[in-house]
């Protein structure tokens, strides 16, 4: 088995707790909680179904693979070993690009909205608004730039802030319900429907993928063969609770019309925090600060892992120049790739600020949605790679094994892959399955643009990303080796 060359200058500093914290910081998202709650009571039902039918087998196969193949680069190495460099380069491009686009086009706007509404007024398009967003983006990037043995404490603090905010909100909602009755649950409608499932499946799958992300720093873990399976199990369990309980709390308190994206969480908090009387305002500000901090560290956690994957692709000769894959000799981080992510996120933020009105805003929303779904698209190669590694490299030491051996691993992998295929189709071609089963689907009312415009942007975005990744691969193939292209 041939794997990419090990990276010099790396120091092992990630313990089991650190791996769990990175997973929690990366995966649990406040904006996803609001979007899930907008699905009503059946969202709770589908969380339970997907936790058992998708998350459980997903965690099992990634726990075994992550412990058996703990090299730096994680999913990039797995796909490269299984299928070769080109599929690995294309996969990593989708995995990586989601994150600077998400940081600059979603997380920063959600943080600014919460800050403006509950902490300090920023206004829209003001100097303060731009300054807040720039600082937010570049703090997230700098967290990824500094050495992992220091940066990990920032993501750990973010994971703690996230769990604390959700636990405090949930406990407050329970207290509010005891005083005023859990009126929202009576009308929530927990009976699952096919239409509700198709509307929720992409966001629920997106909410539950990413627990393998810390493996991108595999050579910086102290004992990955023992720690990765436990870390995935614990972080996946915490994530399930951190989605399920707050969604129930939102549904019990917030009127249905107010459950929309991030507004669902913060408006529900505004409502239930009324039980604190004069302390309501300061506590809302406190939760909003935790909200912004958790979003920032979520961006940081993804930058830490995704930039390492893309840097490994570059260092392996698969993305324009090997110089982009250089790890800083003192910091042990891919600084050039970090800075490229920062520039990408800043450009995307500036574009979003200038496309904030009229039809352009609707078009931008479509592009943003597609950018987020690129993470799901990357798993189209990652999941089969896990099975290929299991079948072709049986001699690799596997400290943890999926129950029932190769048969159990195969069944779990096929089940996960079926879910990913469904999520990708629904994300890229919304409304098609609804029409197939006889449901009415008003495309323009849902997306604000025509289907032709939507598909032009979705498929166009995918085509552009594929072209960039292929160009980066071909440039490296055609270039003559030079002194400037060798890693220090």
UniProtKB/TrEMBL annotation:
InterPro entries xrefs: AA/rel_permease1, APC_superfamily
Signal peptide: none
Record keywords, A-Z: Cell membrane, Membrane, Transmembrane, Transmembrane helix, Transport
Membrane-spanning ranges: 19-37, 43-63, 75-96, 130-148, 154-178, 190-211, 231-252, 283-305, 337-356, 362-389, 409-432, 452-475
Protein location: Cell membrane
Bilayer topology annotation: Multi-pass membrane protein
This protein's name: APC family permease
Species whose genome carries this gene: Streptomyces siderophoricus
């Amino acid at each position: 088995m041939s794997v990419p060359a090990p990276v010099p200058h790396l120091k092992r500093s990630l313990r089991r707790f650190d791996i769990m914290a990175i997973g929690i910081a990366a995966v649990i998202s406040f904006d996803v909680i609001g979007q899930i709650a907008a699905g009503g009571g059946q969202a709770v039902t589908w969380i339970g179904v997907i936790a058992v039918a998708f998350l459980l087998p997903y965690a099992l196969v990634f726990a075994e693979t992550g412990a058996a193949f703990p090299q730096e680069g994680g999913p990039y190495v797995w796909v490269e070993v299984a299928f070769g460099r080109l599929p690995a380069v294309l996969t990593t491009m989708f995995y990586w690009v989601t994150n600077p686009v998400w940081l600059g086009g979603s997380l920063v706007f959600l943080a600014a909205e919460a800050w403006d509404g509950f902490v300090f007024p920023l206004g829209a398009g003001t100097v303060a608004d731009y300054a807040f967003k720039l600082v937010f983006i570049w703090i997230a990037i700098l967290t990824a730039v500094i050495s992992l043995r220091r940066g990990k404490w920032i993501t750990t603090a973010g994971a703690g802030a996230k769990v604390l905010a959700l636990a405090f909100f949930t406990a407050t909602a329970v207290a509010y319900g005891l005083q005023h009755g859990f009126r929202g649950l009576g009308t929530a409608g927990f009976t699952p429907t096919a239409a509700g499932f198709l509307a929720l499946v992409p966001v629920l799958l997106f909410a539950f993928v990413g627990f393998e992300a810390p493996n991108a720093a595999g050579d910086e873990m102290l004992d990955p063969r023992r720690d990765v399976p436990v870390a995935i199990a614990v972080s996946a369990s915490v994530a399930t609770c951190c989605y399920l309980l707050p969604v129930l709390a939102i549904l019990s308190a917030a009127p249905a019309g107010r459950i929309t994206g991030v507004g669902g969480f913060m408006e529900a908090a505004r409502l239930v925090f009324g039980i604190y009387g004069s302390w309501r305002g300061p506590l809302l500000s406190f939760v909003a600060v935790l909200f912004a901090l958790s979003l920032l560290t979520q961006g940081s956690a993804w930058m830490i892992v995704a930039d390492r994957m893309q840097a490994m692709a570059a260092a392996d000769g698969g993305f324009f120049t090997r110089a982009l894959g250089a790890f800083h000799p003192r910091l042990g981080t891919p600084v050039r790739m970090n800075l490229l992510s920062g520039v990408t996120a800043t450009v995307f933020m500036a574009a979003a600020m200038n496309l904030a009105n009229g039809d352009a805003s609707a078009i931008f929303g479509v592009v943003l949605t597609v950018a987020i779904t690129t993470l799901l698209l990357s798993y189209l190669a990652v999941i089969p790679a896990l099975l290929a590694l299991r079948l072709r490299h049986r001699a690799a030491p596997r400290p943890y094994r999926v129950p029932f051996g190769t048969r159990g691993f195969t069944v779990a992998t096929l089940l996960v892959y079926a879910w990913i295929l469904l999520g990708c189709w629904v994300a890229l071609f919304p409304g098609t399955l609804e029409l197939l089963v006889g449901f009415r689907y008003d495309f323009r009312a849902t997306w604000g643009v025509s289907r032709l415009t939507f598909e032009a942007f979705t498929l166009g975005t995918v085509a552009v990303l594929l072209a960039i990744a292929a160009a980066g691969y071909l440039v490296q193939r055609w270039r003559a080796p030079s002194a400037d292209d060798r890693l220090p």
